[in-house]
Amino acid sequence: PPGSGRVYAKISDFGFAKKVDLDNQQTYLAGTIPYMAPEIFRLPLIVTQAVDIYALGITFYKLITHKYPVNERNLKDQGEKLATLKCIEKPTEITENLLWDLLSKLLEFDPNKRIIAFDALKHPYFTSPEALSDISKEQQDLASLADV
């Protein structure tokens, strides 16, 4: 908020948005095709918050490589392509092992094995001494003001 001394970075895709009901699972299909998790293409369709983690992984992947790992022309082709894969292969653009370890956990095809947000934030990519040494004094000062 203005004047709070805090900085918030937000990435949004409102191709599909709805109020979250933690007691119910979504049972209908919607979304932006390259960001859709593999389980969205399987029946019975049961969508959980794990699809958002997969979409976050796709967002990171695209920011780093400037491409999608799978980007077929339509929903049918995307589903068929994902069905032929066991996982997203490491692209040549990603050479840092900690980054790929985090990305591969975000992009895990099995939603029950996919990393959850809490654990992703504690991943060594964000918390290792090397990662922490990359944080500027100004960034450290901003982080110390956050309600974490």
Automatic annotation (TrEMBL):
SUPFAM superfamilies per record: Protein kinase-like (PK-like) (SSF56112)
Q: Which residues form the Protein kinase domain?
A: 1-126
What Gene Ontology molecular function terms does this protein carry? ATP binding; protein kinase activity
Record Pfam families: Pkinase
InterPro entries linked: Kinase-like_dom_sf, Prot_kinase_dom
The family database entries (PANTHER family) matched by this protein are listed as: OVARIAN-SPECIFIC SERINE/THREONINE-PROTEIN KINASE LOK-RELATED (PTHR44167), SERINE_THREONINE-PROTEIN KINASE CHK2 (PTHR44167:SF24)
Q: What is this protein called?
A: Protein kinase domain-containing protein
Native source organism of the sequence: Streblomastix strix
